[in-house]
C-alpha cells in the first residue's frame, strides 16, 4: 500500500501526562515512522503510513490514551511526503494562540508510593519522587510548552541515572519534567524561626517528626505554598497556633494519613471518599463522627479533611501516629506564602520551617469541596483543579480578559470557544494581595501569549479588580469594556459550566454585589441569558447599620430588622440582639436607621443569615466569613417541618413576618429549621410561574443545609460542580457576558 505523510493534531490535556511516550509506544506497535512533539496547541504527530494503519493508529490514540490525559479533539490531514527513517520525539516551536491546557499539580501515584517505601529502590525515602503520571506541574511552570527548561526544575542538573530514565521512551519517567533523585534533585532543609539551619542527626524528616511529637508548629513547604502544621490531637499546640495566627475560631483543615484514618474521624459517603482519594486530593468538608476536637472547629461539627499529596507529606504522615492540622501559611487577607522571604512575616507563628530548594513559581492553595445530595460542590478551586479550561457553548468574537470580583478573586481569559480560569487568588483587601493578583494576570497573559481586546469586570466601582480594569483601559484606548452585574455573572458562571445559552431563572443568594441602582444586592431572582437579565424579584431592602461594619457584625443587621419591626419599641425589648447594645447606642443607631445615615440599603441573603443568627443569639460578631451560616447549619433539625410566613408582592419579598415569628419561637432548633424551610418556600413561590430551568448560584449556596433542601424540592435545579458558587466563579460568568461583544 502507498505510504503517505499525515499530520495529526490532538488537543486537550495532553502535555505533562505521558502523551508523547504513549504515542512513541504506538509507533513501535504499528511499525510507523515519523515524529511526535508538543506544541502550544497540544500534541502534533507526523506519520508515514498507509490509510488502514492510520485508522488503526487513530483508534488506538482515542481509546488507549494515558490515564491523566483527556482529549478534546483529534484532527488529521495529509501533507506533502516527508521521508522518515525512524520514529522520534522532537521539540517544535509554535507562535500561534496557545490552546493547550496547563497540567494541574497531582498527588503522588501508587507506583511512586511503592518505590518511596521500598528499601531497595534508589529513590527510597526521596521526598520529591515523581513520574510522568504524578507530581508537580502548574506550580513549577514559568512558561509553555511544559518542558523542564520552562519549570523551576531547570536549576537542577540531572544525574546520569535520571537522565537515562528521562530519555528512555519505555521508562515510567520518560520526559517526567520534575524527575530527580537523592543525588541530583531538590533537597530538604530544616530551619528555625530565625532562618538558622537546624542540625539533624539522621534526616530532616525524622527530626521534623520529633518536633511535631513535641507539639511544635512547623511551616512546611508543600506544592503551591507553605502550610502551618501541628499535631491535630494536641490541644495546646492548636491553641498556640490559633493564638499566634490570631485565628480564634475559624475551622482548621486536617491532613490524615489515609482514608482509614479519615473514616475514624468522620462519616464519609462513597462520593466523599472518591474525592478524598482522587489524584487532585482536595480538602473535603465532611461530618465529624463526634466533636473530635473542639479546637479544630469550635462549635462546628464539620471538618475539612485531606490526604497527603506530596511524597514529603506521605513520608511525614507515615511516621506520625496522629493527623496534622494543616492550614495555609499566610497573613490574614494576604496570599499564601510561597518563599522564605514572604514566610518571614510569620516567624512568630511557627517554630521551625521544613523547607526545600525547588521554587514555587505559581502559588496555589488547597482546593476545598463538599458533597451535597451526592453532587460535588466546589468551594475553593485551586491545587489539582487549576488552571482549568472550560469550553464555551459559542465562539467569542474577541479575546477577553475578565477580572472577577473582589473577594475570592479569580481571573479568566477567553478566546475562541474557551476560557482559562485562574486558581483561587484570594481577597483583594491588601496591597500584597493586589500585587499577587496582578502577577497572576501577567503570568496568564505571558503563558498564553495573550492580549485582550475586551475587558470584562464587575459593576462595583470600588472593587480593586474594577480599578485595575480601568487602568488597563486607560493605557489601551482601543480595548472594549464590558461591565457585568455581579449576580448576572454568578448565574452565567453556572451556565458556562453547563453550556447553557438559553434563558434561565436564576436565584443568586449572595453576600454582596453592586446593584444597578447602586444598592448592595444579594437576594436576587433574575431571568437571564448571556446578554441580558431582568430582576424579577428580590429581598426587600433593609438598612445595613454602619455600612461595611455590618458585614462582620450580624448584630447590626439584626438591630436594623428590629427597628423595621418595632420602631422605638426596640428600646424596651430584651433579646440577644438588644443585649449587645447600650441604651445610648440603641438611641443613636435608631436615629441613624431613621435618617439612613451610614446605612446603605441591601437585599443580601448573606446578611439575612447573619441577622437571623444574631436574633437567635447564635452569633453577634463574626471572626471569619460565613461563620453565622455554619453555626445555623449546626442547629438545623431535619425532623422539624413547617415554615414561617412572608409576603411576596410586586417582586419584593418581605421577610419581616418570618423574623417576628422566629422571635416568638421558644425552641432555637425549631426556629432555625423553619427559617431554612421558609427560604425554600420563598424560592418556590417566586419560581412558580416560570417555565424555565432553575439555576442556583452565589456564596450562600455553600450552605449545605439550604442547598440540600432546595435540591430536594427541585431535583432538577442546576448548580455548578466544578466552579465555585461564590465569587470565585464571577470571572467565568463575566466572559460569558461578552458573547456578542466586539470592537464595533
Ligand atoms: Zn508517580
Ligand atoms: Zn538523579
Ligand atoms: Fe457574590
Helix and strand arrangement:
Elements: E1 4-13, H1 19-29, E2 33-39, E3 42-49, H2 51-64, E4 70-79, E5 87-91, H3 110-116, H4 160-167, E6 188-192, H5 204-213, E7 218-221, E8 226-231, H6 235-245, E9 254-255, H7 259-265, E10 266-267, H8 270-277, E11 283-288, E12 302-306, H9 311-318, E13 324-328, H10 340-343, E14 352-356, E15 368-372, E16 375-380, E17 388-391, E18 400-402, E19 412-415, E20 418-421, H11 431-447, E21 454-458, H12 464-475, E22 480-484, H13 486-497, E23 504-514, E24 520-528, E25 533-539, E26 542-543, H14 549-552, H15 554-566, H16 583-595, E27 601-602, H17 605-615, H18 627-635, E28 647-649, E29 652-654, H19 656-664, H20 668-687, E30 694-697, H21 704-713, H22 730-736
Parallel strand pairs: 2-5, 7-14, 9-12, 11-15, 18-21, 21-22, 23-30, 25-29
Antiparallel strand pairs: 1-3, 1-4, 2-3, 6-14, 7-8, 8-13, 9-13, 10-11, 11-12, 15-16, 17-20, 18-19, 19-20, 23-24, 24-25, 26-27, 28-29
Helix pairs in contact: 13-22, 15-17, 17-18, 20-21
The structure holds zinc ion (2 copies) and fe (iii) ion.
One zinc ion is lined by residues 109, 111-112, 130-131, 133-134.
Walk me through what this model shows.
The chain is of the alpha+beta class. It folds into 5 domains: 4-89, 2-Layer Sandwich (Alpha-Beta Plaits), CATH 3.30.70.100; 102-186, DHBP synthase (Alpha-Beta Complex), CATH 3.90.870; 188-369, DHBP synthase, CATH 3.90.870.40; 387-498 and 728-736, Nucleotidyltransferase, domain 5 (2-Layer Sandwich); 507-713, ATPase, nucleotide binding domain (Nucleotidyltransferase, domain 5, 2-Layer Sandwich). Strands 6, 7, 8, 9, 10, 11, 12, 13, 14, 15 and 16 form an 11-stranded mixed beta sheet that branches. A 6-stranded mixed beta sheet has the order 17-20-19-18-21-22, with helices on both faces. Strand 15 and strand 16 form a beta hairpin. The mean pLDDT is 93. The structure holds zinc ion (2 copies) and fe (iii) ion. One zinc ion is lined by residues 109, 111-112, 130-131, 133-134.
Amino acid at each position: 500500500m502507498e505510504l503517505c505523510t499525515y499530520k495529526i493534531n490532538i488537543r486537550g490535556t495532553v502535555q505533562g501526562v505521558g502523551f508523547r511516550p504513549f504515542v512513541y509506544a504506538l509507533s513501535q506497535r504499528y511499525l510507523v515512522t515519523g515524529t511526535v512533539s508538543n506544541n502550544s496547541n497540544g500534541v502534533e504527530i507526523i506519520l508515514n503510513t498507509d490509510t488502514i494503519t492510520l485508522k488503526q493508529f487513530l483508534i488506538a490514540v482515542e481509546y488507549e490514551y494515558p490515564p491523566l490525559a483527556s482529549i478534546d479533539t483529534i484532527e488529521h490531514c495529509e501533507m506533502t511526503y516527508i521521508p522518515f527513517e525512524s520514529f522520534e520525539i522532537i521539540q517544535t516551536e509554535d507562535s500561534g494562540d496557545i490552546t493547550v491546557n496547563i497540567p494541574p499539580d497531582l498527588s503522588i501515584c501508587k507506583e511512586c508510593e511503592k518505590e518511596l517505601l521500598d528499601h531497595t529502590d534508589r529513590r527510597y525515602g526521596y521526598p520529591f519522587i515523581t513520574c510522568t503520571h504524578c507530581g508537580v506541574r502548574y506550580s513549577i511552570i514559568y512558561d509553555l510548552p511544559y518542558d523542564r527548561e520552562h519549570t523551576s526544575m531547570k536549576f537542577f542538573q540531572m544525574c546520569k541515572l535520571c537522565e537515562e530514565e528521562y530519555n528512555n521512551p519505555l521508562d515510567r519517567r520518560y520526559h517526567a519534567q520534575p524527575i530527580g533523585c537523592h543525588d541530583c534533585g531538590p533537597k530538604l532543609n530544616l530551619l528555625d524561626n530565625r532562618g538558622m539551619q537546624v542540625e539533624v542527626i539522621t534526616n530532616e524528616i525524622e527530626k521534623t517528626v520529633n518536633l511535631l511529637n513535641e507539639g511544635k508548629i512547623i511551616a512546611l513547604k508543600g506544592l503551591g505554598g507553605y502550610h502551618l502544621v501541628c499535631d491535630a490531637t494536641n490541644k495546646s499546640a492548636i491553641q498556640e497556633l490559633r493564638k499566634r495566627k490570631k485565628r480564634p475560631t475559624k475551622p482548621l483543615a486536617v491532613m490524615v494519613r489515609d482514608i482509614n484514618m479519615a473514616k475514624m474521624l468522620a462519616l464519609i459517603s462513597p462520593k466523599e471518599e472518591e474525592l478524598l482519594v482522587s489524584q487532585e486530593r482536595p480538602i473535603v468538608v465532611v461530618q465529624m463522627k463526634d466533636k473530635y476536637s473542639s479546637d479544630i472547629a469550635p462549635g462546628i461539627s464539620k471538618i475539612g479533611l485531606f490526604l497527603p499529596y506530596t511524597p514529603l507529606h506521605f513520608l511525614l504522615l507515615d511516621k506520625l501516629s496522629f493527623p496534622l492540622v494543616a492550614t495555609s501559611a499566610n497573613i490574614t487577607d494576604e496570599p499564601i506564602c510561597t518563599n522564605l522571604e514572604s514566610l518571614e512575616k510569620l516567624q512568630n507563628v511557627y517554630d521551625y520551617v521544613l523547607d526545600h530548594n525547588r521554587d514555587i513559581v505559581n502559588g496555589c492553595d488547597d482546593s476545598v469541596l463538599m458533597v451535597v445530595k451526592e453532587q460535588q460542590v466546589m468551594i475553593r478551586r485551586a491545587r489539582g483543579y487549576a488552571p482549568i479550561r472550560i469550553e464555551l457553548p459559542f465562539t467569542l468574537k474577541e479575546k477577553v480578559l475578565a477580572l472577577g470580583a473582589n473577594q475570592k478573586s479569580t481571573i479568566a481569559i477567553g478566546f475562541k470557544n474557551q476560557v482559562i480560569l485562574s486558581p483561587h487568588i484570594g481577597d483583594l483587601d491588601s496591597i500584597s494581595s493586589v500585587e499577587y493578583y496582578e502577577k497572576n494576570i501577567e503570568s496568564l497573559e505571558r503563558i498564553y501569549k495573550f492580549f485582550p481586546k475586551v475587558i470584562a469586570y464587575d459593576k462595583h466601582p470600588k472593587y480593586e479588580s474594577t480599578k485595575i480594569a480601568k487602568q488597563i483601559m486607560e493605557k489601551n484606548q482601543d480595548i472594549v469594556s464590558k461591565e457585568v452585574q455581579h449576580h448576572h455573572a454568578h448565574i452565567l458562571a453556572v451556565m458556562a459550566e453547563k453550556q447553557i445559552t438559553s434563558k434561565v431563572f436564576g436565584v443568586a443568594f449572595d453576600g454582596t454585589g453592586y446593584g444597578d441602582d447602586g444598592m448592595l444586592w444579594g437576594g436576587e431572582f433574575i431571568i437571564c441569558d448571556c446578554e441580558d437579565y431582568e430582576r424579577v424579584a428580590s429581598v426587600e431592602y433593609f438598612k445595613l447599620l454602619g455600612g461595611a461594619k455590618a458585614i462582620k457584625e450580624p448584630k447590626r443587621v439584626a438591630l436594623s430588622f428590629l427597628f423595621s419591626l418595632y420602631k422605638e419599641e426596640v428600646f424596651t425589648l430584651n433579646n440577644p440582639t438588644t443585649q449587645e447594645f447600650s441604651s445610648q447606642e440603641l438611641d443613636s443607631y435608631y436615629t441613624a436607621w431613621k435618617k439612613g445615615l451610614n446605612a446603605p440599603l441591601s437585599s443580601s441573603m448573606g446578611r439575612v443569615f447573619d441577622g437571623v443568627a444574631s436574633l437567635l443569639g447564635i452569633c453577634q460578631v463574626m471572626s471569619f466569613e460565613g461563620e453565622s451560616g455554619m453555626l445555623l447549619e449546626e442547629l438545623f433539625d431535619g425532623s422539624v417541618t413547617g415554615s414561617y410566613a412572608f409576603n411576596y408582592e410586586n417582586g419584593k419579598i418581605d421577610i419581616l413576618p418570618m423574623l417576628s415569628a422566629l422571635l416568638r419561637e421558644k425552641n432555637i432548633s425549631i426556629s432555625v429549621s423553619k427559617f431554612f424551610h421558609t427560604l425554600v418556600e420563598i424560592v418556590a413561590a417566586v419560581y412558580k410561574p416560570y417555565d424555565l430551568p432553575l439555576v442556583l448560584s452565589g456564596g450562600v449556596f455553600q450552605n449545605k443545609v439550604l442547598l440540600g433542601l432546595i435540591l430536594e424540592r427541585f431535583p432538577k435545579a442546576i448548580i455548578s460542580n466544578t466552579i465555585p458558587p461564590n465569587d470565585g466563579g464571577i470571572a467565568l460568568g463575566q466572559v460569558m457576558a461578552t458573547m456578542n461583544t466586539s470592537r464595533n
